[in-house]
Amino acid sequence: MSDQIDALRREYTSRGLHRDDLSKNPVNQFREWFNQARDAGLLEPNAMTLATATSAGQVSARTVLLKAFDEKGFVFFTNYGSRKSTDIDENPSVALLFAWLPLERQLSIQGKATRISHAESLAYFMSRPVGSRIGAWVSEQSRVVSSRNLLETKFHEMMEKFRDGQVPLPDFWGGIRVEPERMEFWQGGANRLHDRFLYTADPEGGWRIERLQP
């Protein structure tokens, strides 16, 4: 094979993952793993792959940043005219993937995506640096643009418009929350006998936990 990709191989050496290690609540388990990834100094531990699909089943994926999470779900922010947002408008079923490779871990989440409230979006937007707030006004995310110069010119125009630093929240920008229905915690294991545990939401409340084969 080209570039000998088939020869790339790593043996996983972690202690593994056991049922007794797990919290009954997957959000609490996520919090533990996320804090460990952050404490380990991983680059962008809140980076996650977001997979969406249109109503016709055309799938796309991209990396976004987790900005908040709680029992209600996992929140990221975006332009509501972006491809990811229009996909979600058509089909709210999405997947998230965290890959914390130095810890030999990954976490996948499946659930439904919905927009958060205007108040929640506003609170986060006002916490952003001024340049980032202006950038939200400048970019018509996912649209074709003829050159970077056009973006930079528009950015400088907006800098002038909002030179007093009072940058309002655009009505086309805000947060999206993914409410989890399934969460799978994967820990690398020796001889490719990885440890996988799946949490599935019970319609009557709580979570069912099952071990999956590697």
Structure description:
This protein is an alpha+beta fold. It contains 5 helices and 9 strands; from the N terminus they run αββββαββαααβββ. Strands 1, 2, 3, 4, 5, 6, 7, 8 and 9 form a 9-stranded antiparallel β-sheet that branches. A hairpin with a 7-residue loop joins strand 7 and strand 8 (195-201). It starts with 25 loop residues before the first helix and ends with a strand. The mean pLDDT is 93.
Helix content percent band: 10-25%
Distance between the termini: 26 Å
What portion of the residues fall into strands of 2 or more residues?
Answer: 25-35%
Total beta-strand segments: 9
Average of per-residue pLDDT values: 93
Give the biggest sheet: 9 strands, antiparallel
Low-pLDDT parts are: none
Coarse morphology: globular
Structural class: alpha+beta
Rounded to an integer, what's the Rg over CA atoms? 20 Å
Number of helical elements: 5
Order of helices and strands: HEEEEHEEHHHEEE
Summarize the structure.
By secondary structure, this protein is α+β, with helices and mostly antiparallel strands. Helix content is 25%, strand content 33%.
Name the descriptors.
214 residues, 9 strands, 25% helix, alpha+beta, nine-stranded antiparallel sheet
Fold topology:
Elements: H1 26-39, E1 47-53, E2 59-65, E3 68-70, E4 73-79, H2 83-90, E5 93-100, E6 105-115, H3 118-125, H4 130-138, H5 148-161, E7 173-187, E8 195-201, E9 207-212
Antiparallel strand pairs: 1-2, 1-5, 3-4, 4-7, 5-6, 6-7, 7-8, 8-9
